[in-house]
Amino acid sequence: MLLKQQVNLAKNILAQRRNVSTSTASAQSFQKWYQKLWAPERTNLPPYSHFTQIGDPVLRQKAAPVPQEHIQSPEIEAIVEQMVRVLRKFDCVGIAAPQIGVSLRIIAMEFKGGIRKELPEAVYQARQMTELPLTVFINPVLTVTSYTKLKHPEGCMSVRGFSAEVERFEGVSISGLNAKGVQSELELTGWNARIAQHEMDHLDGKLYTDHMDRSTFSCTCWEAVNTKSGRVEIPFYK
User: What is the domain range of residue 83?
Assistant: First the structure.
């Protein structure tokens, strides 16, 4: 649902509430109780500033294409800006619109060069990691260019605290519209191809847990859980 439609929905709910307003205290008390039956209030609406988590229905829906006439609208611009904001706030490498609660076909990717300093060089090379500037695709289409499969550990901000080994194609081509509505295409290999495949899965209602080697599924902080006698928290905010 587009942000504008969500705003209109909120306005309609407020209008309906005004229409059923009454003057007596008892009637107003009944009114509040009755409204909760059909219009429960929500204090937080998409696009979120956090990642939706596995179990949220939005992650299992096939995201809708962004209509051509809305691609350069303020609503889509706001959604893209929020995606980039959340991507960088959580220091991750990819994000899809459903991960902030918006079921639209939009992804953003960014692999910063500084990550190399945080990983052993052998790991960086084995995973074929290379820097990828911030890249946004609206209504992306992915084509496999190398059918060789690589298996590496993979995590997801929407399956917080866990990881598993996943096979992905070594090379892909991704095309679509950028944030300005201009058609673009990008050839990706290695880890960046993995990022693209991971984010495209989100647009089709899939998670890495659907493809993983189940025997490798593990909690990323299991050692800390043992060391600290279970007193470990996995934050869903930052």
Answer: 57-227
Catalytic residue among 121, 199, 223, 233: 199
Please give the model's pTM, rounded to 2 decimal places.
0.82
Which residues, other chains included, contact 184 with Cβ-Cβ below 8 Å and sequence gap of 6+?
137, 175, 176, 177, 178
In a domain, 94, yes or no: yes
Nearest to 146 by CA among 192, 200, 183, 111: 192
- Annotated active-site residue 199? The verdict is yes
Contact 217, 162 (CB under 8 A): yes
**Sorting pLDDT into bands at 50, 70 and 90, what band is 11?**
very low
Tokens of 44: 């937080």
Reported as a single tens digit per residue, the pLDDT across 104-120 is: 999 999 999 999 999 99
The answer to whether residues 34 and 132 belong to one domain is no
